[in-house]
Amino acid sequence: MSGTMNITLKVWRQAGPTALGKFEEYTARDVSPEMSFLEMLDVVNEKLVMAGKEPIAFDHDCREGICGMCGMMINGAAHGPSKLTTTCQLHMRSFKDGDQLTIEPWRAKAFPVIRDLVVDRSPLDRIIQAGGFISVATGSPQDANAIPIGKPDADESMDAAACIGCGACVAACPNASVSLFTAAKIGHLGLLPQGQPERYRRALKMVAQMDLEGFGGCTLFGECMEACPKGISIDFIKRMHGDFIWGAISERPEKAVLGSG
Amino acid sequence: MKLDAKIPSGPIQDKWDTHRFEMKLVNPANKRKYHVIVVGSGLAGASAAASMSELGYNVSCFAYQDSPRRAHSIAAQGGINAAKNYRNDGDSIWRLFYDTVKGGDFRAREANVYRLAQVSVNIIDQCVAQGVPFAREYGGLLANRSFGGAQVSRTFYARGQTGQQLLLGAYQALEKEIARGGVKMYNRHEMLDVVLVNGVARGIITRDLVTGEVEAHVADAVVLGTGGYGNVFYLSTNAQGCNVSATYRAYKKGAAFANPCYTQIHPTCIPVAGDHQSKLTLMSESLRNDGRVWVPKRKEDCGKKPSEIAEEDRDYYLERKYPSFGNLAPRDISSRAAKEACDDGRGVGPGGRGVYLDFSDAIKRLGAKEIGDRYGNLFEMYQRITDENPYEVPMRIYPASHYSMGGLWVDYNLMSTIPGLHVIGEANFSDHGANRLGASALMQGLADGYFVLPYTIGHYLASNKFEKVTSDHPEFRAAMEGVRARTARLLGINGKRSADSFHRELGKILWEKCGMARNEAGLKEALQQIPALREEFWQNLTVPGSGDSFNQQLEKAGRVADFLEFGELLCQDALHREESCGGHFREEHQEEGEAKRNDDKFAYVAAWEYTGESSAPVLHKEPLEFENVHLATRSYK
After folding, report:
1. CB-CB neighbors (< 8 A) of B451 in chain A
2. For position A2, what pLDDT does the model report?
3. Any alpha helices (H) in chain A, and if so which ranges?
4. Is the pTM of this model over 0.80?
5. CATH of range A5-115; options 1.10.1240.10, 3.40.50.2300, 2.30.30.60, 3.10.20.30
6. Which 47-76 residues of chain B touch chain A by CB within 8 A?
């Protein structure tokens, strides 16, 4: 085990959504390389609390890289320098003694700051509400094995379903586009037979919602894929565009259903 | 307080069907007139909220996270059990029922467990229909694996992220209902009290975690799906925010707390690396299908590299002690065996608190590629945290707090001792007895939420008349005042210690005195130390900031305050239960190192009633009757 480190942090502090924010500098002393990044912040916060100051607010929960709650820009990279790693899974052994780190919240018009590093990601839920589901009610569907699904389709669907909804794709995109998140859900459901009946309608509705939320457009920079802690491929964005175009061409107006009156 | 489990009569196979027919129904046109509050949005809460909304009820759902998709169900790795018998290996509803009752060391209620096994098959159908991408075989049908001490392959999985995929299925169903207007979702809201009007649960008090506003929410029934209390140990595999507050507040309002001493310590977690540690990470126990657990035979070998320890100098203690189950022995047994080896001075890694989980034989037999296909993501996760490559050196693992079998007491209808207050998922006590088998938590959460509560809540609503109540009712006003006063008190102490430091100290007491092994002297010490720590908390806590803004220290302080009371109840229950069963191991009660139950005296559910701050809780007993699975010593030898 190597020795401990001293790290200088420049952290974005902002008291509330309408307050002006600014960077403040802190020194994290005697940081062990075995610590996670958030544990390093815990130690900084403990010192602030002891000094009667308000600690740095940041979102986090599972601390094992799956809940999608954590996320911050570390030296300009969403979730920091390690590939395929959420902030909570980033360890201090990725840094060296004397490093200076700039820590900021996700920056996007659609993600207003709540406090310090905490942002409002509710637009992601509303995109799912627009169509990110299969319309089945709880009941007695057919036996699970009545729908065979080829392993390649099931595996690719799972690749897309692995999205944790953290918002790093938005933060990393120069346009603050949410296409990777949206495309992952469209890909997950659209690759399965159960998802076919609503496939094109889903693409139209979810794309419309992401525009409505004020996210930027996708110009296929690919920064999202680089930042994604789950390695979701931008191929799913191409798939989303295909579903959207086919949906736009083939869309039929919804008709009144016989007996609905 | 009188405990009436309301178990339907008749043969166990028919109980649920008969009961479903006998329960009253709410007319479809009237359902929307009923308002149901669901607290928690994990597997149980989200599935219940979505299903009730689909039926037509007017639902409000609350989560402390920023989205229902963050709930800690998402972290479950291994899988979900169902008695589908797709493998033709002799599985059946009866076998799943039998395994669960036996695995729970005969401390679960038979009727509930049978129902759980029955609806397990519907869960898989429902999830597939929702688009959950379970693992499949080349023929397109669902894959299965054997898991957690089961001798049949009944576990369905989605890579190492089964909990995530099941939760996303329930979350998407919930978002669908939010969009339709059937559910109103309150994210970043924490429940701080339950409100009773004339002895019946009629709503909750919440704090908006962004604005700090204290709000009253009125309903006709309240459902808690707020998870377990594993974080009482400070270090656990639970998410940082997991807490006992919702269930503990309900306990203080009259809901009996059942079997708090049944805590599950999971055998395969990454060991503690240092004092700064904030959580422990689980390594799915599916790893035990191919990994072999060992420690050096001699203490003096512990400092050596594992490759320098010859085969004959290794003690594969699970294979030695439990030849028929070997490395797949159930969680409680595996955890205790690891502790014994480390207590014996043969532990490995920092502080000597670790054992090896070694894949070298499996890699020799199957090749690194096959092992990578099976466990690649887990191996990566391990390497990310420890900086060691498990393909080359054995993993180091150690047990950690993971799940709580205890919880609020509920009857067969999942209703607590407070009329109208229902409890689902990990938050209740009912199905796992003293030890939960692997891949059964997801099954129970979804069984309660999709297939049990939506029926039983209708029966409750149809059987009762509800007077009109508003948030101006004196009970609501008093509860809101109580919440505000408590917040002010936490903020006004201005002492010298953080909430986290108290939590850490509490966790240490409980882990040492009420963890994997317990004894009378240790528990009595803990029962002295916890009240003293609690007193210091209320005199020396510091919480910066204010109550009317986003304040994570304040949230934490409120949760720690409840843990400081609950920890005492946990120890009291552990002290009173003078036997060993499942996750509760009393050192005084063992036979050749194995847990020794006392069915004559302790074949009951211990349900504790709160009686006030300065008086001891009162014990109520629900006798457990085993008519279908005969009481036997649980042996995995």
Report:
1. 138
2. 56
3. 37-50, 122-131, 151-161, 168-172, 179-190, 199-212, 223-227, 235-250
4. yes
5. 3.10.20.30
6. 47, 50-51, 54, 65-72, 74-75
